[in-house]
Design goal:
heterodimer, A: alpha/beta, Dimethylsulfoxide Reductase, domain 2, Rossmann fold, Barwin-like endoglucanases, six-stranded mixed barrel, five-stranded parallel β-sheet, 21 helices, B: alpha+beta, Alpha-Beta Plaits, four-stranded mixed β-sheet, three-stranded antiparallel β-sheet
């Protein structure tokens, strides 16, 4: 989230689209209700009339997978009706920037300029800016970037700042504004209704209501979750929401923002910690063979020419110092070469690709740590068969999951499987101490409540045992790449036992001098602003800098920012700055500079986050911009307001159009991989960059065989694959069986009655579930034809003590997004019959 | 201690059923343990009704909203209403059921004689009995919402209230709860929910559970003008003094009640599971057909 849960109460309009926030993020309901109590309007856009929709002021149906059409139409509506926030858009976004004149989007082919049909990738050059002037960094001893020349800093050529050409009148046909306006002019209300399947009156009411937050004093928030992201263009879905929020001036406002409701209690933490092939902790990029094979190349490739990411070498060197400790020196590029590099076929190592590698007998061993791919990944029946190729499988989990027992699945023949499966019982969250990180980026310390049962261990203890055993083997027997293992710093012990507190020191960052973990001595850094690129500081994840920074009590989390429990609420905005710690830098609302106008005056005094009083910044939240500068003599002085409201971008302006995505500079609508209709907005049925669609395992189905759109979702009663919740009789009792939701019309067509057993099937699989026939789902009229949609919950498999069922993900397609590699669970084709 | 009440605001309820789970957990009420033993009834309303181990359920009812999309989806709460003029207390022959100092209807299970008069007397059909479905003939003991006196006495709210995330449940001075409910209903009227109303303020001389109903009462499985049956009042007049005379008199009194047909009317009705009809045993007449497909219980 760019905001946090409590901030929902500050919204004037709440748009729930792609999430079922009351059901699946129950705590959100508390804050949404507070907004409603203050007179806010709540819109829910969803294929199903959910329990969330039941509480909303406005409900609007939408066919699964058509969000870009919906939001594209909203952008068009905002522009056509002049509802955008002029001063904000003009100054804080790249609307006025001039784009390369060779940029083009061809509606007939659905392709942007730069498409290479051989590699099936875009060259994004033509999506970039025209350059006004170029300037280089001043790295002299008195220059802004003097740190680059200091001893110990790895050598690299600093980037050149290419200041873009702009047209503040927004009239130049090559400016972002004109390109965007032209691009979305096709997304008329009638067109959107034709694609998404709602009626024009409802859609216009939604657009009108949400666009009312273009009033500078008002804020609108978008609550989304996997309904937006789990599409092969899920990242573009997210980006188009950002664009809407920028046009309406909602990003950075209290009660605004783009708010991803994370499901797993620590999934935000997992994302921060780089659980993706190309990520390094803190949203830095992992070294790749192709573009960053050396530290010098990394610094040159990754460091931004302006804005806060000019500091990236500081983050990287500090990261390496933590990773390799004393073994990391300037002479050996701080051990950069020991880090494994992502190979050119890195995409093959993402979740979907992994199972293809198993199937080809390339990947022979697999750790499933706190995940359950045999039930939760797409096309699970293929995954299970692929897993049978493994030599060994290690599953660390709370319960015996489907993955741990993949060989017991009804469609598997255990006698033909030679995989050795190891199960490591994991401690429950209540059985270990450490941090939990919520969707609002709050790091909160949890104390252990009870000891783990039997042999169950916290994950960090399992890691420790594994690391020590592996390192021992390398020490004794040697082997390939032993250096990277043996040079790793691994000293997170208290009284000889692995402990999350020294890990916290590492994640917060510390001065190398004055620190010796083995003696329990640490000189913690105040925050990430103290990080250096000369090897004098170490830090495991720069964004967490400051969360555990009290060197006087390094072993007492209660005396650290992460353990704070203060209730102060400056501005009465629910910011609670003394409750726990919010990364980055305890900022509660990211981009908060944009909550004030160009002169630093809040768009709305009642929602004041930061304010320029004529000589200094007055703040309720930690400024997310350069509010002060430090002079050479160490004194600080305030920086008067300017237009640099988004200083994490090199332009320091937000991007309505971008070169940062692989698949499009402006989100464009494509149909889901499996769709019952043709794309009528452009000539490409699917996104040209869809991932894994060519794989044999996918077994694409078409509408002639499988005419019904299906989507998967969770219900509030159960959690994910149900491995934990189906172990709780009280939860099983309130939702004992798997069902699908279908309309009365479809049920009548198929001769199905409520509570009947039904079979849902496609080329990938077939499952038997119960039917819940309801008026809450209605058929859509798409391009003039009737399209039925069903919703499937996915909490069951063959395992567990109290209830079992078929695996719904046997039906979902293993195709994905080229930016995030997320699978397309939320829109695919099936047929249904009475079982 | 002033009179307390639980407030349930159906217009804030998200139907998550966490209250049901909290109730079971706090009160150590078991759920079925046999694998795949539970039937699903084609609704999110699970279990479908109160039971010997279920003191609280959230009801789900989909009403027509007169619009192109969606329904009037009513999330109701079905549990003890903690009446002031409580039929169950009145009818209880053993003095098991009584009002506690907060006005909630609680009981001393040790005193329950398993007669189940309370269930048939209750205009809301709330009390259930453990052991009543036990073929081994274990002792039959009342089980219903007590208002969590073991929590309230320590300054905590009932378990269901504490767990409620959307703030649909609250607990406090009855007058305050009524004031909040009335304010909420006024707001709902303003938002166009014409049938919104407070329930429990005057019913049964005042309940200690106050409901804000967002839609019409017909969507909440609640009786309009609930009343104590005349016979219950009569029986209580017979039973109470007799109870004071002791066990033998109670048995005698029960015999009188049984013979005179006072009190336990429930057994005179039968449920046909195939046809989903409620049938009067004496006359064979179908009293009510339960439309399962429409989500009715």
């Amino acid at each position: 989230m760019t905001g946090h849960y409590c901030d929902f109460k500050n919204a004037d309009v709440i748009l729930t689209c792609g999430s079922n926030n009351l059901e699946n993020h129950p705590v959100s309901s508390k804050w949404v209700q507070r907004a409603l109590d203050k007179g806010a309007t709540w819109i829910v856009v969803d294929p199903r009339f959910t329990r969330t929709a039941a509480q909303a002021d406005i409900y609007c149906p939408i066919r699964s997978g058509t969000d870009i059409a919906f939001y594209g139409g909203l952008i068009n509506y905002i522009i056509e009706n002049d509802l955008w926030q002029h001063e904000y858009v003009l100054n804080y976004t790249n609307a006025s920037y001039l784009i390369n004149p060779d940029y083009n989007f061809d509606v007939s082919t659905g392709l942007f300029s730069g498409w290479d049909p051989t590699t099936k990738k875009y060259d994004t050059t033509t999506w970039g800016y025209q350059t006004e002037s170029e300037s280089t960094w001043d790295t002299s001893s008195t220059g802004t970037y003097s740190w680059v020349s200091q001893e110990g800093v790895p050598e690299f050529t600093p980037p050149t700042l290419k200041t873009p050409k702009k047209d503040p009148t927004l009239e130049d046909p090559n400016c972002v504004w004109q390109i965007m306006k032209n691009h979305y002019s096709r997304y008329t209300i009638d067109k959107v209704c034709e694609v998404c399947g709602m009626d024009p009156d409802t859609l216009e009411l939604v657009y009108k209501t949400y666009a009312s937050t273009g009033d500078p004093a008002k804020s609108g928030t978008i609550l989304y979750a996997l309904g937006q992201t789990q599409h092969h263009y899920g990242s573009e879905n997210t980006r188009i929401m950002c664009m809407v929020q920028l046009l309406l001036g909602n990003a950075g406002m209290a009660g605004g923002g783009v708010n991803a409701l994370r499901g797993e209690p620590n999934v935000q933490g997992a994302t921060d910690m780089a659980m993706m092939v190309y990520d390094l902790p803190g949203y830095l990029h992992w070294p790749t063979v192709a573009s960053t094979p050396t530290l010098r190349a990394w610094c040159e490739h990754e460091t931004y020419s302006d804005g806060y990411y000019t500091n990236k070498p500081k983050f990287m060197v500090s990261f390496l110092k933590e990773w390799f400790g004393d073994n990391a020196t300037v002479g050996n590029d701080y051990g950069y070469d020991w880090l494994p590099k992502v190979p050119k076929n890195g995409d093959d190592y993402t979740t979907i690709g992994t199972f293809e590698l198993m199937n080809k007998d390339i990947m022979k061993g697999y750790f499933a740590w706190g995940q359950n791919p045999a039930a939760s990944d797409p096309n699970t029946s293929f995954n299970r068969r692929a897993m049978a190729h493994l030599d060994w499988l290690v599953v660390a989990d709370w319960t015996e999951t489907a993955t741990a027992t993949f060989w017991k699945a009804p469609d598997m023949d255990a006698s033909q499987i030679n995989t050795e499966v190891y199960f490591l019982p994991a401690a429950l969250i209540y059985e270990k101490s450490g941090t939990i990180l919520n969707s609002g980026r709050w790091l909160q310390w949890r104390q252990k409540a009870v000891e783990p049962v039997d042999q169950a261990k916290p994950d960090y203890e399992m890691c420790d045992l594994l690391y020590r055993a592996i390192a021992d083997l390398y020490r004794k027997e040697g082997g390939k790449c032993s250096e990277q293992i043996l040079n790793t710093k691994w000293d997170y012990y208290v009284d000889g036992k692995i402990d999350p507190r020294p890990v916290s020191w590492a994640l917060n960052g510390y001065n190398v001098e004055g620190t010796d973990f083995s003696k329990g001595k640490v000189s913690l850094l105040n925050g990430f602003a103290n990080l250096k690129a000369d090897g004098s500081t170490a830090n495991g994840i720069w964004i967490y800098g400051g969360y555990y920074n009290n060197s006087d009590a390094p072993l007492d989390p209660a005396q650290q920012p992460v353990g704070r429990r203060g209730h102060d609420d400056p501005g009465n905005l629910g910011l609670y700055p003394k409750w726990a710690f919010s990364w980055p830098a305890n900022r509660r609302i990211i981009y908060n500079r944009a909550s004030a106008d160009l002169r630093g005056q809040p768009w709305n005094e009642d929602k004041m986050l930061v304010k320029w009083d004529g000589s200094k910044w007055v703040t309720n939240d930690v400024p997310d911009f350069a509010a002060n500068k430090t002079n050479a003599d160490g004194t600080t002085e305030p920086i008067p307001p300017n237009n640099k409201a988004f200083f994490m971008k090199w332009e320091q302006n937000a991007n309505l159009m971008t070169t940062g995505m692989k698949d499009a500079p402006l989100p464009e609508f494509y149909e889901p991989f499996e769709s019952p209709v043709k794309n009528t907005l452009n000539g490409s049925q699917n996104s040209p960059m869809i991932k894994y669609a060519e794989n044999e395992s996918v077994k694409k189905g078409d509408a002639s065989q499988y005419p019904i759109v299906a989507t998967t979702y969770s219900i509030t009663e159960h959690w994910q694959t149900g491995a934990q919740t189906r172990m709780c009789p009280a939860l099983d009792e309130i939702a004992p069986q798997q069902f699908i939701e279908m309309s009365e019309e479809l049920a009548a067509e198929k001769g199905i009655k409520n509570n009947d057993d039904v079979r849902v099937f496609n080329n990938r699989g077939s499952v038997k579930v119960k039917a819940l026939v309801t008026k809450r789902i209605r058929p859509f009229t798409i391009n003039g034809q009737t399209v039925h949609q069903i919703g499937m919950i996915h909490h069951w498999d063959w395992t567990n003590m109290f209830s079992t069922g078929d695996v719904v993900n046997d039906l979902t397609p293993n195709v994905g997004d080229p930016n995030s590699y997320i699978p397309e669970y939320k829109a695919f084709l099936v047929d249904v019959e009475k079982a | 201690m002033t009179e307390q009440a639980i407030l349930f605001d159906s217009s804030r309820c998200s139907g998550c059923k966490a209250c049901q789970v909290a109730c079971k957990t706090w009160n150590s009420l078991p759920s079925p343990l046999e694998k795949n033993s539970q039937e699903w009834n084609g609704s999110l309303q699970c279990p479908p009704d109160l039971g010997s181990n279920t003191r609280l359920i959230i009801t789900f009812n989909e009403g027509d909203n007169g619009k192109k999309y969606g329904v009037n989806w009513a999330f109701g709460r079905r549990s003890c209403m903690h009446c002031t003029n409580a039929a169950c207390v009145n009818v209880c022959p053993s003095g098991c059921l009584y009002h506690d100092e907060y006005g909630m209807v609680t009981y001393d299970a040790e005193k329950c004689i398993g007669c189940q008069y309370c269930r048939s007397a209750c205009p809301f059909d709330v009390p259930r009995h453990k052991g009543s479905d036990d073929i081994l003939g274990g002792s039959v003991v009342i089980n219903k919402c007590t208002g969590c006196p073991d929590r309230v006495a320590h300054g905590r709210k009932p378990a269901c209230v504490t767990t409620c995330q959307p703030g649909a449940l609250d607990f406090g001075d009855r007058d305050d709860m009524i004031a909040i409910a009335e304010e909420r209903v006024a707001l709902l009227h303003k938002k166009g929910f014409d049938k919104a109303r407070v329930y429990g303020k005057d019913e049964m001389d005042g309940c200690h559970v106050i409901y804000v109903l967002k839609y019409g009462i017909e969507q909440y499985e609640l009786p309009e003008n609930p009343k104590i049956m005349g016979s219950v009042n009569a029986s209580s007049k017979v039973m109470k003094p007799l109870t004071a005379l002791g066990f033998v008199a109670v048995i005698a009194g029960l015999a009188v009640c049984y013979i005179s047909g006072i009190g336990y009317h429930r057994d005179t009705m039968r449920y046909d599971e195939k046809k989903h009809d409620v049938i009067d045993v004496d006359t064979g007449e179908v009293i009510k057909h339960i439309d399962k497909e429409a989500g009715e219980r």
